UniProtKB/TrEMBL annotation:
This is Rpn family recombination-promoting nuclease/putative transposase. It comes from the Bacteria. The lineage of its organism: Bacteria, Pseudomonadati, Bacteroidota, Cytophagia, Cytophagales.
């Protein structure tokens, strides 16, 4: 029995009341989220054990990949915020604000502002 027939058999109790002919085309109604989910469930139900294990491993790999991308995106945002704070601190230091005030307003630690101050003074003195 082909894959479509197995899916139809699994979905038949859901589709019978709607009286749909799914063998020729996917009706517009089936494009809706609920029916897409039903088709995914039926596809999984129609798989043999080997295919299910392979599918689950692929799904895990995909989710791990997405999580890695999300984490990298967050780290990139944090790094960008830090770089912006450092640039702001440099401007504040060049305008003569104290290290303590720069730390207070920039969110950087006093040590980070001192390092920024040293770097700024070296560039100005070059």
């Amino acid at each position: 029995m082909g894959g479509l027939h197995r899916k139809c058999r699994v979905l038949n109790p859901f589709l019978r009341p709607i009286n749909l002919d799914i063998q020729h085309e996917t009706p517009t109604l089936l494009q809706e989220r609920t029916f897409k989910k039903l088709f995914k469930i039926s596809e999984y139900s129609a798989m043999n054990e080997t295919d299910k294990v392979s599918y689950e491993e692929s799904l895990k790999t995909f989710r791990d990949y997405v999580n890695t991308l999300d984490q990298a995106k967050e780290e990139g945002k944090e790094e960008g915020k830090k770089e912006q704070a450092i640039e702001t601190a440099k401007s504040m230091l060049l305008d003569g604000l104290s290290i303590e005030k720069v730390a207070q307003y920039s969110g950087l630690s006093i040590e980070e502002v001192q390092n920024t101050s040293l770097a700024t003074n070296q560039k100005v003195g070059d």
